[in-house]
């Protein structure tokens, strides 16, 4: 497999002008590396100090790793991560308990879990992954400005300008917004990338449980296990990180009364998360008490706003990628993959524009064109994820999944295989070969055999 430097030196490069990227999450870093490898002068703006954690299930699957291979980052990311090999799913098939306190001390319903193998994946904390990708971006020649919050202050047919609070705006040929779910990236009087679907649906939260705390509760995951607890109010995913800590990440639907009676709010979604875990029947009463104590006293939760959303993902010389463009739901752990893939595709398409291969109205048309094409190469997988996350909210569907998959886990194979197959990126190919394949067929999906 190729190193970053090798892949950077072997792909076709052109003068791609000045590109600004707002946000150094996985999408922003992957885009920055690809743009730099293609010959752009890239500046990456990140408002947080790294390393930083963020709400995430920390699982990166086969398609995401394949996309990282194309920019020479796959091998080192695999080295840092812990391999994941299968999902162990606990499905709530009886009516959920109404209060956590009722469950503690009682034996929750025990439904045997299902085990579903996956093709390839790793678990890695976002602090480590994002820091590593940022380091690779710097190696690829990207200029990084951090910590600094970037704001789009002006746009024209010729350029787009951002300010980082200095009062001296800087002009770029292209602005890539990779600012995630919570990024603010434009001044009030600058036109927004409007919402197609305003934020709604479940809210995300996550925390890390130390190896010692997990041992105390006797919550030990098998090697390669991604544990999932699915119920009506949402789902919780747990994975062991390379340092032995557990990453606990949940997406739960707000708007209902929480287990302890609170309405919408941080506390309510924490209690719903605890209820999902206890309802699965994995924990006996002593473990349940310890887990409840950890939730109340030790856990440091990070939360997100409502997750489901989609916006117009391009206009003029501004394009959005990753969570900034839209979000389905994280049940299957596809968010990072989609962000990385869109970072690579947007760089290759921009290269075509700069070569004059796709210029009905010149570069000023790029954003609108990206908006038409952006989601198309992931449509099938996005629909699949939305369908699955919708289905697991229904008790009969969970019952079917639980009983069907326990007897025949291969029933899930078309689904896991479909998610593992993303577009085929070639590390060494010409701009034409890689980008025209997307452009000609409106970014049709290239499913590897
Ligand atoms: C509960 C939950 C579990 C999940 N589990 C998984 C999983 O297991 N696997 C998976 O693949 N995905 C998972 N996801 C999804 C995944 O976390 C996201 O899809 C992914 O982080 C998106 O990456 P991004 O680069 O678009 O955004 P982010 O990673 O959010 O990065 C955005 C960056 O932009 C910066 N920023 C924002 N505004 C500005 C500004 N104005 N100037 C400068 N910097 C700015 C932020 O500081 C941040 O660093 C999960 C999500 C949730 C909520």
From TrEMBL:
Signal peptide: none annotated. InterPro entries: FAD-dep_OxRdtase, FAD/NAD-bd_sf, Geranylgeranyl_reductase. SUPFAM superfamilies: FAD/NAD(P)-binding domain (SSF51905). Residues 18-48 form the FAD dependent oxidoreductase domain. This is FAD dependent oxidoreductase domain-containing protein. PANTHER family: CONDITIONED MEDIUM FACTOR RECEPTOR 1, GERANYLGERANYL DIPHOSPHATE REDUCTASE.
């Amino acid at each position: 497999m190729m190193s970053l430097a090798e892949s950077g030196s072997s792909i076709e490069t052109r003068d791609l002008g000045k590109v600004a990227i707002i946000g150094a999450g996985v999408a922003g870093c992957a885009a920055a590396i690809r743009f730099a490898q293609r010959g752009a002068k890239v500046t990456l703006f990140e408002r947080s100090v790294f390393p930083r954690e963020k709400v995430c299930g920390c699982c990166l699957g086969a398609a995401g790793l394949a996309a990282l291979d194309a920019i020479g980052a796959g091998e080192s990311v695999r080295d840092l991560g812990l391999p994941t090999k299968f999902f162990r799913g606990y499905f709530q098939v009886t009516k959920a308990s109404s209060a956590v306190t009722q469950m503690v001390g009682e034996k929750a319903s025990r439904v045997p879990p299902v085990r579903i193998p996956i093709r390839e994946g790793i678990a890695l904390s976002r602090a480590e992954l994002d820091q590593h990708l940022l380091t690779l971006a710097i190696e690829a020649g990207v200029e990084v400005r951090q910590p600094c919050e970037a704001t789009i202050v002006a746009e024209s047919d010729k350029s787009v300008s951002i300010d980082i609070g200095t009062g001296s705006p800087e002009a770029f040929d292209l602005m890539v917004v990779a600012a995630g779910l919570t990024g603010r990236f434009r001044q009030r009087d600058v036109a927004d990338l409007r919402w197609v679907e305003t934020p709604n649906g479940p809210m995300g939260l996550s925390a890390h449980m130390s190896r010692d705390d997990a041992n105390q509760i006797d919550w030990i995951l098998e090697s390669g296990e991604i544990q999932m607890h699915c119920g009506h109010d949402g789902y919780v995913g747990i994975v062991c990180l390379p340092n032995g800590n557990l990453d606990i990440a949940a997406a739960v639907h707000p708007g209902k009364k929480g287990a302890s009676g609170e309405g919408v709010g941080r506390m309510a979604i924490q209690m719903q998360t605890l209820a999902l875990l206890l309802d699965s029947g994995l924990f006996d009463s002593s473990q349940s008490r310890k887990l409840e104590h950890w939730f109340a006293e030790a856990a440091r939760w990070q939360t997100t706003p409502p997750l489901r959303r989609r916006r117009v993902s391009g206009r003029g010389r501004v394009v959005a990628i990753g969570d900034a463009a839209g979000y389905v739901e994280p049940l299957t752990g596809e968010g990072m993959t989609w962000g990385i893939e869109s970072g690579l595709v947007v760089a290759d398409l921009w290269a075509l524009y700069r070569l004059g291969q796709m210029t009905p109205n010149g570069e000023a048309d790029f954003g609108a064109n990206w908006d038409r094409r952006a989601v198309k190469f992931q449509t099938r997988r996005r629909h699949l994820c939305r369908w699955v996350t919708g289905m697991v909210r229904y008790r009969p569907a969970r019952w079917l999944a639980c009983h069907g998959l326990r007897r025949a886990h291969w029933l899930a194979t078309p689904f896991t295989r479909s998610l593992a197959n993303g577009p085929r990126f070639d590390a060494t190919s010409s701009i034409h070969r890689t980008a025209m394949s997307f452009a000609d067929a409106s970014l049709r999906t290239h499913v590897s055999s």
